[in-house]
Amino acid sequence: MSPLLSFFSSIDPKARPGIPVKVQLSEIDESMRTPSILFLSAAVCWLVIGSFFALVASIKLHSPDFLANVEWLTFGRARSAHLNAMAFGWANNAIFAVSLWIMARLCKTAVRHGGLLIIAGIFWNIGVTIGVIGILTGGLTSVEWLEMPPQVAPILAFSYILIGVWGVIAFRFRQLGHVYVSQWYILAALFWFPWLYIIAQTMIFIEPARGTVQAITNWWFAHNVLGLWFTPVGLGAIYYFLPKVLGRPIYSYYLSVLGFWSLALFYNWAGVHHLIGGPIPVWLISAGIVASVMMVIPVIVTAINHHFTAVGNARATWASPTLRFIVFGAMSYTLASLFGSGMALRDVNVVTHFTQFTVGHAHHGVYAFFTMVMYGSIYFMMPRMLNREWPSAALIKTHFWCCAIGIGIMLVGLHVGGWIQGMMMNELTPDGNPKYTFLEVVHALVPWLFSRSVSGVLLTIGHIAFFVHFFWMLAGPKISRYREGPTLLLDSIRGEGKAG
User: What would the DSSP string read from start to end of 378-413?
Assistant: First the structure.
């Protein structure tokens, strides 16, 4: 039988009847080690690379002469390189590693066709590398979140097909019985992302839509990458690691159902509110506003579920490196989402639109929520895949505090500065003319942009500490195999990774 026919036979439901054989979690961790480490190593490298471009772009906002003579580091290129290195390099590699590792564990069956993930990981990172180099050399597009040259899209699409197929195969051969909350979110995300990416590439580059439909498509894609790709994977990770480390079940299964389906129903429409005032149908804007406000339902429901799962374990939560990041991310999800619903209201949007407030809101969701959850997930995964302890408690603390304080400073600076910026732009004289010139608004914003650079320095220090610690962990000595179970006492800051 040819390799291709053998592959299709292996995923044919009729070819392997009966209940799959349940295997130990340690065996699953070992079988997932190579693809997971590949994705995570690439993710951590892209995190540091993206941090460099972020710092350059941030400094240029208040000091335009910084590296002014370096053509490939102009603001437009540095900012786009930062966005794509972080979104497609760091975030997507982290998603592939964390979500597929969780899926394999919850399916509780032997991992099949792991080579697909290795091939996909290699091609995905080749594609991202070509894309970022294309941005830096002037080949970028003008479409936010899709700045990489369109020629990169087939490479990324091919890579993602292999990853998505593997996720479906893993779920197909799961141990029959209960489907966990985390699996709902991960499976949904695996189907949502290719739909978003293919539609955006088709309607913007391959067969461009006419007029403002392109702008609608761009915001539909950009906003839903956050809400239907990063968010479900982040929530799926929280739903897995929070009860796993605490050794207790999720507070309410029914709240989980309500949170999942309301997210799936409302978020798809929400991004259009960013085009308030644009030349597009009013009904579409109104639908986006209503959907954004209705997002309060899944946010509050999820917050209640997470809170009552962790309530009474504050000391243990603080002691665990995993939960320290996870809980920080879960709280940030609630706040960022409520801010987003408020920003959809016309009276608020008229102030926040076209300001640094929107930039701060994006960082609130992508970094304070999603990225912090990915950090916590990695701190849990690595010891179990490598059978090694995290070498340094000091580096974990450095990583957490630099990132937590850094993103805190950024959020305060961009939200407050953005609000002041919006108020100044909207303020009129008695005769109806703008009260402040554009340069006066920019001058008032400079101190807040400087605070963003300060936060960028702290974040970069945290990322470098994480980078050093991650690769130190890879080179560390092997210890005895972990025993899976409640990890509350062992997964602590005094014994990083001694869990499971």
Answer: HHHHHHHHHT---S-HHHHHHHHHHHHHHHHHHHHH
